Amino acid sequence: MSTQNDKLDHLKTSAFDRRMSIAKASLLAGTRWATANAVTMFANDEEKEQKRKQAMAEQANYLAQEIGKLKGSVVKIGQMMALYGEHFLPEEITQALNTLNNKTVALSWVAIEQHLRQQLGSKLDDLTIDQEPLGTASLAQVHRATRKSDGLELVLKIQYPGVAEAIDSDMNLFRSMLKVTRMVPQTREFDEWYEEVRSMMHREVDYAMEAATTKRFHDRLQHDDRYVVPQIMDQYCSERVLCMTFERGVPINSPAMLTLPQVRRNALGEASLEIAVRELFEWDEMQTDPNFGNYLVRLGNGQDIKDKIVLLDFGAIRQFDEHLLNVARNLIIAGYHHNKPQMITSMTGYNFFDSIPESIKPDMSEVFLLATEAFSTPENNSDMPTGVMDNEYRYDWKKSNLHSRVIQQASRSMASRYFSVPPKEFMFISRKFIGAYTFMTVIDAKTNVRDMVKRFV
Fold first, then answer.
1. DSSP three-state, residue 226
2. Is the CA virtual torsion 221, 222, 226, 228 positive or negative?
3. Which residues of 364-448 form beta strands (DSSP E)?
4. How many CB atoms are located within 10 Å of the residue 366 CB?
5. What tens digit of pLDDT does each residue of 209-246 get?
6. By the 8 A CB rule, do 275 and 314 touch?
7. 2 CB burial (10 A radius; 0-12, 13-18, 19+)
8. How far apart are CA 109 and CA 133, in angstroms?
9. Distance CA 390, CA 267 (A)
10. Residue 158: count of CB within 10 angstroms of its CB
11. How far apart are alpha carbons 272 and 275 in whole angstroms?
12. How far is CA 349 from CA 80, 192, 205, 344, 369, in A?
């Protein structure tokens, strides 16, 4: 945690300050990039490619360092581009953007208290607030609080002053940076994705929307003792402050998790994936941010008190078109039956798949069949590796090495321009399941996912 000496008194959110910083960094990176290209003019193709990758990595890392100094929404933009832009950005750039640290330097308590007073007025006097933040991020920081009247433990998610208003100008600055450096191809698909990032940024700072979504999930899961969803405290919320109950738990990758007996890890794994299944098949909306920081586990006693998954952040919830949802559902059902013709038929009627030649679809279906391997059985899927599913249809995620196998299969089967840029909505859904798969791999869970889908088949 930051000491008082290295905290910020304010964020530079003025367009002028940020424009000057970005312009200086962009021009320098662009000049270096052009120089590097000129130096390799007389090299052979292999040397050129090696030098090009090295130069791009160097300039991308330099830009990431400069972006990190600005903090605020421009950092979050970079993080989102790294998360969702692998189909548009060179690998060297996504790797550099992935270094942007979400644990930014905190805003000083003096500045935070002043901001809170403007947002909450006299209601702030109801609370005793820890001056040291629980955590800091690019758009907000979180402080624990106690309500004086009854000792109720709360957390305040406090959006930094001026961040929401700076989003559009920061988006424009970031785009200008990419153009000036000439390291990213400017295409229609990239434009569409960039505008989607802009939309995501505005949803991230919409605390009224996040509060409403948190309440929906709280209502859905309040009677299921496998989950905990914080309760929103409306009286201490505002446009820039989100208040909810404080919920204890340990991180997903905590050593305490790996010491749990297998049966308890299995139960937690099933609970994590069931959320994704229900979001897709029942609720028509999905938490699309796979960040493990959005989850905690409240450990039980292994007897009468169950382990629970604490769901923390609902700022990245997305609603989807019913037609797309049906396509995604049918792909999973085809995977349940491990039926290739059914998988191909499931793609019909969706613009993206309809635009792909019929000759490409069989190879594409092989990727989807592999990605849904855990939903199938050894009886209907002769390609399933030996030993990854037991006789109770529990899938061994860690042993399966599924994620790597899917990537390898995709590189072989989808080496086509027709699948170079999947639709953004489809990528959001796939990322949700990738996150759930990773959750189960990290905690070494063995889970029966067929039972979750069976009632929807």
1. coil
2. positive
3. 395-396, 446-447
4. 18
5. 999 999 999 999 999 999 999 999 999 999 999 999 99
6. no
7. middle
8. 9
9. 16
10. 25
11. 6
12. 30, 22, 35, 11, 19
